[in-house]
Design a protein that fits this description.
The chain has 461 residues and is mainly beta. The chain folds into two domains: 62 residues; 314 residues, Porin. 13% of the residues lie in helices and 46% in strands. Strand 5 and strand 6 form a beta hairpin. Helix 1 runs antiparallel to helix 2.
Amino acid sequence: MKNFTSRRLIALTGALAFTTAAFAEPADAAEVQALREQFRALEQQLKVIARQLEIKEEAAAAAAPTTPKVTVNDKGFSIASPDGANAIKFRGLVQLDSRLFFKDGGGIANNGFVLRRARLISEGQFAKNYGFQFVTDFGGSSVVIQDANFTVALDKSLQFKLGKFKSPVGLELLQSDAWTFFNERSIVTNLVPNRDLGVQASGDLFDGTLSYAAGVFNGVADGASTTNADFDNEKDVAGRVIATPFKNDASSPLQGLSFGVSASSGREKTASGRTANYKTDGQQTFFSYNAATITDGCNWRFSPQLDYRLGSFGAIGEYVVSAINVRPSATGLKTELQSKAWQFTAGYVLTGEDSSYNGVSPRTNFDLSAGTWGALEVVTRYSDLKVDDAAFPLYASAASNADRARAVGLGFNWYLSKAVAFKIDGYQTRFGFNPLAPAVPTTQILRQKEQAFISRFQLSF
């Protein structure tokens, strides 16, 4: 239509030129009058066409700002307003695991496939400063709402998060489930709170070289997530400060160094205030309290931590102390128990891509026809968890529990693309026991060291 209108305009302009030239030729009065009328008619048509073109251009300009931006890539599916102030993104995470255990006596039915996670993730923002996150997990035996929160960003230095989300204590726990070095987080994660209900303030200071997060939460036990209701009237406070002092110095080998400390403190009551269990890398229980044991009093956690990246090399380390006050029953003796754990994990990307807290991005995707293989990474880890000796035998059974777990892990990660990965891990865990423990533990998995082999196919977008 636009081309047709342009042709009309050119033709009419030519006609005007011809008519103007005709006035130069001698003619009688009638002919001159007729030509003048034709000229006026053509001139009017030119004005109408010119206005029509202006209207179309104005309409096109007015329509452009209302056209949404639609993006589909390996980071998900998103729709955003042209100015970027409003957006919604849909992502997903699927992890299918194969678990194999060796030399376990053959009496434990724990080999098989596991749908570790199957999540639908929606995130968005409105008017730039308001955002939300909603994460539903269909893995396991029931549907779980993992995260449900919204944020108010006043500035880079101050934003508020309200709802259900991860407590700001554990370093590895706060990392995305898709981008940890190993398929399972270390046994240190047993001692930190997982997701909780609360309000948190966070931000970046000093040109991004210092970040903080601090909040008030209902409070959950070690390794636990909220059930969307508080089990007592007490509350916990939790916070984290991380420094990245060389972040803006591109020439420094310490540019990728982050270190800091996190902590939490509060009061807990009832059996819900103490952990349900501590698990190995292979997700088998090696410690749990007696059913009658309850918490009653102050609890606190303290965790120094670091993360370091230099090109293809990456490493994380953290130390956690978790203290709770417990009673063997509602009226029994109260005692503070301190469990301690630490871990150090390192990885190296063999194909040269950068190691990152937010995952490895292959330079090329796996493609046999093109002869490209994605990114390859090797990882290793050592971790150690020690339960307070005072837990036995009054608060936990020495016969059915280990009081210590030392784990070594080796792994190989193949990133076929940013969205698709295949990971293979091997773990070996040795157990220690309280002096009151019998020669042969009553729990079968503790009668030998755990040797686990976990492979995972992952789709994350």
